[in-house]
Amino acid sequence: MKLETTRLIRDIDKSFIIYHEIQPFSRWHRHSEYELVLITKGKGKRMVGDQIDRFERNDLVFIGSNLPHEWLCDNEFYDQNGCFLGEGIVYQFLKDFLGPTFFDIPENRNLKRILDESSRGLKFYGKTKDNIISIMVNNYLADSSDRLFSLFSIFRIMSKTREYTQLSSPGFMEPFHNEGNEPMQKAMDYLVQNFQSDIGMKEMLRITNMSNTAFCTAFRKAYRLTFKEFLLKTRIGYACKLLTDGTQNISQIAYSCGFENLSNFNRQFKKLKNLTPSQYQDKVESDKLTYV
């Protein structure tokens, strides 16, 4: 599946982008900007990293820098002449648009966590979703200063919430750096470098110099998954990346991702993705035929 680099044009007198999307949503693409996407009209298929799901009106997703993604509306959102009937509102900004250190100051540590976790894509829900939607809908036509303050309001909401789910698997993109938690970062660095090999709890305890109970508690708190769940999702995420690239066959991919045999790879992949590796690859490839 061809991955494009697509960027919106920022006005010369603006520091970030607010865009009312009325054209067909972009194909499988990435960009360096962080992106908050609200679908105001439409439904169809959404793909973020290796995660494939349905979306509908009021779908609200935050995309990290260079994370591949696409929204594909169903045919009912094209009229008989092929004109697009969907709509969306998009906020885009570069990490340094407020200066090189804004997100690194101590007061923004929770906001920086959200930016870090967006490397896998975040889907908001609950009151958080309702509050952010209200700001986006009411401010995308506002003047420059009100637009900036609306973004600050969104940042404030993001920094205080846990009402979101991560979309893509670890391994499709590099895991974020867990600043201020050296044992967990050591564990993560080792996992990223060695997930294709046989990694056990024994290595993790040795690297972090922690007891089993302390490590399991700290890892789950830091990454919201157990170590075994994170390792499996990292391997499957990397497998999805290879399946999307189409440079290896499924058997090669299984061993490249640290699985001892093809049957276990197929079983674990289907458990997480509800598709076999070949079905996942076919689903990704079908986009090229259906939406050209």
Layout: helices, strands, pairs:
Layout: E1 4-5, E2 17-21, E3 29-30, E4 34-41, E5 44-48, E6 51-55, E7 60-63, E8 69-73, E9 87-93, H1 109-117, E10 122-124, H2 126-139, H3 144-159, E11 164-166, H4 182-194, H5 201-208, H6 212-223, H7 227-245, H8 250-256, H9 262-273, H10 277-290
What is the class of the largest domain in the CATH system?
Mainly Beta
How many domains comprise the coordinates?
2
Total strands: 11
SS class: alpha+beta
Strand order of the largest sheet: 2-9-4-7-10-11
Summed up, the helix count is 10
- Tell me the CATH topology of the largest domain: Jelly Rolls
The average pLDDT score comes to 86
Series of H and E elements: EEEEEEEEEHEHHEHHHHHHH
Major beta sheet, specifics? 6 strands, antiparallel
Q: Into which percentage range does the β-strand content fall?
A: 15-25%
Radius of gyration: 20 Å
* Annotated CATH homologous superfamily of the largest domain: Regulatory protein AraC
Low-confidence stretches: 288-292
Shape: globular
First and last CA, distance: 12 Å
The CATH architecture assignment of the largest domain turns out to be: Sandwich
Query: In percent, how helical is the residue content?
Result: 40-55%
Explain what the structure shows.
There is one protein chain. The chain is globular. The chain folds into two domains: 4-166, Jelly Rolls, CATH 2.60.120.280; 182-290, Homeodomain-like (Arc Repressor Mutant, subunit A). The chain has helices at 109-117, 126-139, 144-159, 182-194, 201-208, 212-223, 227-245, 250-256, 262-273, 277-290, and strands spanning 4-5, 17-21, 29-30, 34-41, 44-48, 51-55, 60-63, 69-73, 87-93, 122-124, 164-166. Helix 2 (126-139) runs antiparallel to helix 3 and helix 7 crosses helix 10. The protein contains ten helices and eleven strands. With 292 residues, the chain is α+β, with helices and mostly antiparallel strands. Strands 2-9-4-7-10-11 form a six-stranded antiparallel beta sheet, with helices on one face.
